[in-house]
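Quick illustration, no need to memorize.
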Amino acid sequence: TGGLDLILLYWVNAEGRVDDCRLLAPTGHQKFDDTVCATLEEKGRFSPGRDRAGTAIRAPRYEYIRLRTGTRISATPL
């Protein structure tokens, strides 16, 4: 069993949508890496940041994600 590390920097706008995403440390799996930000920008919905007055603002988010990988063992043939 192993793992993949992924580091993202993305911006959540005042509407809670991701409008800018960057892989700071890709996993090394090109096909996966190519879809991470595109999917986050298309489908991601978050609570926006707030200023001191409580107004929704655009704010950065930094994520370190460890994905676990492993071998699936099954008694049933695929």
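DSSP finds one helix and five strands in the chain.
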